[in-house]
Amino acid sequence: MYAKYVTNATTVQSQAISDLALLLTGSPVSALSSSCNKTLSMITPGAPAPGWTLVDSAAPQSGQVISAPDADGLTTKYVRLHVYSAVQFSLTGSESWDATAHTGLNPTTAGSTSTALLVTDAPGMYHLFVTPRSFYICKVGNSPANAVGVGAFEFTREAEHLKGTTYPCFVIANGTVLSGIYNTFDLPRTKDVALTSGDTNSFAQLQRGTMGIRFGTTASGNVPKPPAGPSRAVNDVPYYEFRPVFLIKSLGSYSHTALVYGRLYDVVDTTPGIGNLLDTFPSGSVRYSLVAADANSTVLIRN
C-alpha cells in the first residue's frame, strides 16, 4: 500500500503520530485528525490491506503501538511510533508488548536528534510504503536522490543462529537513507556472535547484492554485481533485475566474515541511474517505488 500524508500549517504532533498509525493499519483518510490536510492526502485506490493492527493507542510519549505477524508465523513485530522531541518523532521496536502496562520487552533504542524524523515543520508531506512484512515513512531529504525516513523491516529467518528460535526477525530504522551501506539498524533480540545467548538491542547493517566479507570499514556488498539477467527498460534505459538486500551483523572496524541475519523482505536494489525519487516500477503484479540512489545502485521498496 502506498499513502501520502500531508499535514496542515498548524499540526499537533500527537495527532500526526496517531494519523500515521491509523494509515499504517488501514484507516481511510476521512478518519484522520484535523492536523491532516485531507484534500492533499491520499491512499492508492484498490491498495491491498496493509496487514498491521493497532494494539495500544495510549503508549508512552504519545505513542501508538502497531503489530503484524512475521511471515513464518513464529513471532510478531511490535512497533511504537512516539514523540522523540518537541519537533520529532521516532520508532521503537519490541519483542512483545503489554497493552495494559504499556511496556515492551527488549525495546530498541529510540534513535537520536540526528535520526528522528521531523513532524512539526508543517505543512509537511510524508510518503508511506506498507506491506504486512514492512513499512517505511519518509520525507524528501536534502539530496533530491534520497528520501530520509523511519521504518520497520522484516527479514527472512535464514541464519543458523536464528533458526529454531522465536526471536523476532525485524529491524527498526530511524532517520535512514536506504542507499547508505553504513546505516545501522536495531533489532529487539538475536543471538550473540558466539551463538550462546540472547543479545538484546543488537545492531545490523545493510549489504546489497551479494553476501561476502566486510573488510575493515569497507563493506563489500556493492561489488561484485550479479549478472544482469534478462534486461528491462525504463524510459529506454536498461537496468538489472532486482537484487536482494541482506542484513549483516554490525562488526565495527575489524576484519570479519559477515554474520548474515537474513534477506530483507520488500527491499531490493538494482542498477544506478534509473528514474527519480518515488518513481514506480512494476514487477508482475507487484509495485516498487524508488526511495534511494547512489553511485552503486538504486534502492526500491515494495508497496
The total domain count is 1
What's the average pLDDT? 75
Report low-confidence residues grouped into runs of 5 or more. 208-233, 252-257
Our measurement of the CA-to-CA distance between the termini, rounded to an integer number of angstroms, reads 5 Å
In one word, what is the shape? globular
Q: Strand order across the biggest sheet? A: 14-15-20-22-25-24-23
State the helical fraction: under 10%
Cα gyration radius (Å): 19 Å
The major β-sheet equals:
7 strands, antiparallel
Percentage of residues in DSSP E strands = over 45%
How many helical stretches? 1
- Label the structural class: mainly beta
Order of helices and strands: EHEEEEEEEEEEEEEEEEEEEEEEEE
Give a count of the beta strands, DSSP E runs of length 2 or more: 25
